[in-house]
Amino acid sequence: MKKKMTALNWMALIVGLFFLYIPIILVIIYSFNESKLVTVWSGFSTKWYGDLFEQEGIWSAAKTSLLLAIGTSTFAVILGTMAAFSLVKFRRFKGRTLFSGITYAPMVMPEIIMGSSLGLTFVALKFSTGFWTMMIAHITFTMCYVVVVVQSRLTGFDRHIEEAAMDLGADGIRTFFYITLPMILPAIISGWLLSFTLSLDDLVIATFTTGPGGTTLPIWIYSKARLGVSPNINALSTIMIGIVATAVFLVTLLNLYLTKRREQDEKNAIREGI
């Protein structure tokens, strides 16, 4: 039986939605404010959007953030998938406990500790800090999330399918690319997207490991916000919210389409079987 929503449930739902979305709505509203004061409404205007794209360094910071996130997520997926395979396929080997602890440590370690320790390491090794040191640092703390996602998929993986493929003559490489990889591909994509988001959003670790020419979009926003939040920041936030909302909407439509298509294929298969 379906339980009816009580007044307390509705109140909790409404309060939760207000807590989550009222700040976002306010940012969007005040991005169209005529006044320079972000908390005083003086009329509708879109001038801050035009002024935003004239700000020095914004395009360079956005390009750096995008390239950094793409490179980080790609390498994190490769290394994280290899680590997950090692932990699942080889359950007993010397140093497994240490390897597992090192892999998961960045998930529970505060970012400020990771950022400062990595920054000191690069200085001690006399690395020139910049784009590549930021990428190494981002791979270090995003790879563990890929390991968790891929490992959970591999744990529930049906090994009999791989064994059947190998019994039919497929070697280990063909079995991986034709059987294992397609079945764990959703987990790999999820790990890539998660790593991309974490890298794109990171400020603390990037601040400690950056150098000349390595300004990311979060660092650029923070440097502007230190002098006081301007309507430019509200406009930029609104654009990013719009991009994310559009992406979520398109993914939802694609998911609905694939679900309906799968249900239709199942119905057709049943009819053909009958």
Automatic annotation (TrEMBL):
Family classification: Belongs to the binding-protein-dependent transport system permease family. CysTW subfamily.
Keywords for this protein: Cell membrane, Membrane, Transmembrane, Transmembrane helix, Transport
UniProt xrefs under CDD domains: TM_PBP2
Protein name: Putrescine ABC transporter permease PotI
Domain of life per record: Bacteria
Segments crossing the lipid bilayer: 7-32, 66-90, 102-125, 131-154, 175-194, 235-258
Segments forming domain ABC transmembrane type-1: 62-252
Gene3D superfamilies, per database record: MetI-like
PROSITE patterns: ABC_TM1
